[in-house]
Amino acid sequence: MSNADTHGDTKPTAFAQAMLDLRESAVLSGTEKRNLAICAIVAALWALLPLFSTGYILSLGISITIFAGLATSWTLFSGPTNYISLATAAFFGIGMYTVAGGVNLLPYPVLILIAAVAGALFAALIGLATLRISGVYFVIFSLGLAELVRQVVSWGQHVMGTSSGLYVLVDRSDSVFFWQLLVFTLVVFLVSWWIGRSRLGFALRIIGNDEVVAVHCGINTARAKVTLFIISSTFAAIAGALVAPRWSYVEPTLAFSPFLSFQVVIMSLLGGVHRLWGPLVGVIPFTIMWEFISAKFPSQTTLLLGVAFLLIVYFIPHGFVGLIEDFSRRRSGIWAALRSKWQAKGGGHE
Amino acid sequence: MNSPSAALTIGGVTKRFGGLVAVNNISFTLPANKVLGLIGPNGSGKTTMINLISGALKPSAGAIHLHGDSISDRSASEIATLGLSRTFQIVRMLPGLTVLENVQAGGVFGHRRMWGTELREHSRALLQKVGLQGVDDTVVSALTYIDQKRVELARALVADPKVLLLDEWLAGLNPTELKTGIALIEQLRTEGRTIMIVEHVMDAIRSLCDTCVVMNSGAKIAEGTPREVLSDAEVIRAYLGDIDA
Questions:
Q1: Chain A residues with CB inside 8 Å of B94's CB?
Q2: Three-state secondary-structure class, residue B163
Q3: Which ipTM was obtained for this model?
Q4: B104 shares contact with chain A (CB less than 8 Å)
Q5: Tell me: the pLDDT tens digits for A178-204?
Q6: What CATH number is given for B1-83+196-245 in this structure?
Q7: In Å, how far are A329, A339, A341 from A333, measured between CA atoms?
Q8: Which of A77, A106, A239, B224 has its CA 20 to 30 A from that of A112?
Q9: Which structural domains are found in chain A, ordered by start?
Q10: Which residues of A touch B (CB under 8 A)?
C-alpha cells in the first residue's frame, strides 16, 4: 500500500513506494506456492459441481459459495481489527437494489460495476465518519446502519409511489449463476490472501492488538481501517448484485435483513477469524445445518440463530480453527513428551 | 532556537487539562548524539511531556521541533515516520503476535521503512542486540518482564529513529536486571544515539545522562549536568520536602 506520509527528499514518492511494495509482494515462498496450488485444485473441483448435480445439491452449493465469499470478506476487516461489523446487510442490500433499480435500463454487468462503486463510496463515507468509535458502539452503529438504509429505501419507494418490491429478471441458468459466484468468492480469497501478507495486513493486525502502539509505529490507523472497510464492504455490495437475479423479487425487508449480517458473523466466528480459510470451515457446516433448520423449524429460525450465536461465543471463541490448532499443538506436545520419556529410558538402559 | 545540532527542541510548551496545568511553559533542547534525563517527583508532568513530544497529546501552547521540523501539530503516526520512537511507562506488547513480529511492527511504516527479508533480518539482529535469542517465534506473554522491555526497546529501535524516548524503561527491574538494563542503554549511547529518558533510578541518571531537566508540578526547576542538578537545593526540596517543614 502506498504511504502518502513520506517526508523529505530521501524517501520515494507514494506511487514509487506502492510499486516497490507490489514488486516485493510478488515474490512467493515455497509454502505459499503450494497453498495456492491446493486452493486452485479445490476450486477447480468445486467448479465441477453443476456437472454432477442440479436442483437441491446445486442450490446448497450456491449458498455455501456465496456465504464463503461474504464471510471471508467480512473477516478481511473484522478479523484483524476486532471491529465486529453488522453492516453486511446494508452493503449487500445496496448492491441488490442497484441491480433491481437498473435492470430495465442498463446491461447487468454494468450494474454489478455500479453496485461495487456505490458500495465503496458508501463505505468510505461511513468509515470516515465512524471508525473513530470502537467496541460495542461500532457494533450497534453498524447494526443501525443497515436498518437506516432499509428505512430510507422503503421511504423512497413510498414517495415515488412504486410498489414495495422490484422484479429482477435476468436470464441465467443455475450453473452459470454458480460459476459467477465461484469467481466472486475466489477473487475475495485472493484479495484477502494478498492483503494478509502485505504491509497493510500486518498493520491491521498491529491495530487489532494495540492501537496506541500502532500509531506510535507510524501507522496511519484511520486510513488503514477505512481502506479495509471499503474493500470488505465493496465485496458485500458485489455479492448483493450477484444474488439479486436469483431472488428475482427484491424488497427492503429481504435485501437489508439483519439476519444476513448475523449469519455472516456467526459463520466467521464459528470457523475462526485469524486464518484465511477459517470462515470457510465455519460456512460449510453452518450452511448445511441451516438448510436443515429452516426446513424443519421455519418459524424458530431467529431463536435458533441466537442460540447458535451464544453457544459459539461461549464454547468455541476461537472457532474451529482454534480447536484444530489447539488439538494439533497438544498432540505434538504429547509426542514430544513421549519422545523425551523414551529417550530418558533409553539413556537409563545404557 | 534550532541550532543544527539540536535533535529535539521544546519551546515554551504548555499543556492544560481543563483547569489543571500539567506542563507549564517548558523549554529545553536535546542535542544530537546526547542523552537527556527528564526527572522529577511523581506527578510532576514527565510522562505528559513525553506524550506531548510523541504526539499522543497535543500541546495547548508552544512548539516542538524534531531536527528543525515542527512536530507539535502533527499526528503521532507522522511523528513516528519522521524519526521519533518511544517505549511506554507500562510495557505495551502486541499479545497476538510473536516476539519477532512485535519487533517487526516498528519497521513496517516507521522512519526507516522495511519489509520482507530485510525487515526480518534487521529485527532478528536487534533482538540479539538487546539480549534476546532463540525466542523469535515465542508468544510474548511467555516472556519475563525485562524480556518484554527488551522487545519493546528493539521495536523502538527497528525503524532507526533519530530520537528515542524511554519512559521509565528501567522501572520494575530487580538489581541484576537493572545493571543489564543500564549497560544496554549505555551501549546505545556509545553508538551515538540521541535519547531522552524519563527515569526515577538515580544510578541510571548519573551514569547515562549528559544533561538533566528537572520538573516539579509541571514546571522546569533545574537544568544541567546530573551532578549539578542533583545537588541543587530546589531539586532536593522538590524530592524530599522542605527541611523546615
A1: 205-206, 209-210, 213
A2: strand
A3: 0.91
A4: yes
A5: 999 999 999 999 999 999 989 999 999
A6: 3.40.50.300
A7: 6, 10, 12
A8: A77
A9: 29-286 (1.10.3470)
A10: 3, 5-7, 11, 17, 21, 24, 27, 199, 202-203, 205-206, 208-210, 212-221, 274
